Amino acid sequence: MLTKNKLRSKILFTLRQQKDDQRLEKSRLIKNKLFRLKVFRKAKRIMFYLAYDGEVETEEMIKEAMKQGKIVAVPVCKVKEKKIIPCKIGPDTEFNRGPYGIKEPRKKIPLPLKELDLVIVPGVAFDKKGMRLGRGKGYYDFFLKELPKKTTTIGLAFDFQIVPRLPSLSHDMPVDRVLFA
């Protein structure tokens, strides 16, 4: 089994090599799967991530969820506290680059964790049990640990990001489900 760092490097390389049209087409298929789920249809407040560095694209998902009247939040990184804060966004939200180059809303309106019904989680890789390999900073592991048990978590991935088994440590947090194409 590859180490986390070797696996991360290998999959990030593949993510970055993927052609845009292929990435967008697979993202659309994943969006369709997500929007058909009962847990998604029932959710009123959803936290999405903003796609970065070849990840499954979430922009159309976010726009569509807002059109459906859902309250949408995205993560804001607090580097000193090593925390993710879900912040509400709307159709007119303006964005800046955050500490890791990932877009964040310019105006930060926090949404309490207990109010989230569903969290859409990025990952470099996922395994069959829902374990995830992130970018190595631990933000999402800490965040997922803080979420109320009732909040559903779904990882989004491309088929090459699904591996049979990931090496995991005690602090690694799985997602409830992974959707991929």
Describe the overall structure.
This protein has helices spanning 4-17, 20-36, 38-42, 59-67, 139-146; strands spanning 45-47, 71-78, 83-89, 95-97, 103-105, 118-121, 125-127, 132-133, 152-157, 162-163, 177-180. The strands form three sheets. A six-stranded mixed β-sheet has the order 3-2-1-6-9-11. The longest helix is centred in the N-terminal third of the chain and has 17 residues, at 20-36. It is of the alpha/beta class. The mean pLDDT is 95. Strand 2 (71-78) and strand 3 (83-89) form a beta hairpin. It starts with a helix and ends with a strand. The protein is built from five helices and eleven strands.
Number of strands: 11
Mean pLDDT: 95
User: Alpha-carbon distance between the termini?
Assistant: 24 Å
Unreliable stretches, pLDDT < 50, 5 or more residues? none
The percentage helix is 25-40%
Alpha-beta content class: alpha/beta
The best one-word shape is: globular
Proportion of residues in β-strands: 15-25%
Order of helices and strands: HHHEHEEEEEEEHEEE
Radius of gyration: 15 Å
Number of helices: 5
Please outline what is shown here:
The chain has about 180 residues and is an alpha/beta fold. It is about 30% helix and about 25% strand.
Write the layout of secondary structure elements.
Blueprint: H1 4-17, H2 20-36, H3 38-42, E1 45-47, H4 59-67, E2 71-78, E3 83-89, E4 95-97, E5 103-105, E6 118-121, E7 125-127, E8 132-133, H5 139-146, E9 152-157, E10 162-163, E11 177-180
Parallel strand pairs: 1-2, 1-6, 6-9, 7-10, 9-11
Antiparallel strand pairs: 2-3, 4-5, 7-8
